[in-house]
């Protein structure tokens, strides 16, 4: 089974998620999304597999997130904002053949192993 972590190495929660995967014997594909950016297909797939939709993938601590949610932005607008500003996406996200989970709390990623 392939496991992928969408990771920000500067984030302590993301680092903890990567450590937890490694402790469980998983060597995930690490995608540093702040470097690689996002594409629409990946965001749509993660929104579906996490079950939270695109708005649920937004990082709540970002000011722009509040603006998007308060304005009732459409999925198209949210997706475009995430592609333009990758930091708007919550982290970490772990994806496997069993689905995807946002790692908040970190232990939630175990559900897809």
Distinctive features:
4 strands; alpha+beta; 14% strand; four-stranded mixed sheet; 43% helix; single chain; 113 residues
Structural class: alpha+beta
Strand content: 5-15%
Please give the radius of gyration in angstroms: 13 Å
* Share in helix: 40-55%
Distance between the termini: 9 Å
> Secondary-structure element order, as H and E?
EHEHHHHHEE
Number of helices: 6
Characterize the biggest β-sheet.
4 strands, mixed
> Ranges with pLDDT <50 over ≥5 residues?
none
| Shape assignment | globular
What does this structure look like?
Strands 2-1-3-4 form a four-stranded mixed β-sheet. The protein has 113 residues and is an alpha+beta fold. The protein has helices at residues 12-23, 33-36, 40-50, 53-56, 63-70, 75-84; strands at residues 4-7, 29-32, 93-96, 99-102. It contains six helices and four strands.
Write a brief caption for the model.
The chain is of the alpha+beta class and 113 residues long.
SSE order and pairing:
Elements: E1 4-7, H1 12-23, E2 29-32, H2 33-36, H3 40-50, H4 53-56, H5 63-70, H6 75-84, E3 93-96, E4 99-102
Parallel strand pairs: 1-2
Antiparallel strand pairs: 1-3, 3-4
């Amino acid at each position: 089974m392939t496991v992928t972590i969408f990771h920000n190495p500067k984030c302590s929660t993301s680092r903890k998620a990567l450590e937890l995967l490694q402790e469980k014997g998983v060597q995930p594909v690490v995608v540093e999304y702040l470097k690689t950016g996002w594409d629409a297909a990946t965001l749509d797939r993660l929104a579906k597999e996490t079950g939270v939709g695109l708005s649920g993938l937004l990082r709540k601590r970002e000011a722009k997130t509040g603006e998007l949610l308060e304005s009732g932005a459409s999925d198209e607008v949210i997706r475009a904002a995430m592609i333009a500003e990758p930091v708007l996406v919550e982290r970490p996200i772990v994806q496997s053949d069993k689905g995807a989970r946002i790692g908040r709390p970190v232990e939630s990623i175990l559900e897809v192993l």
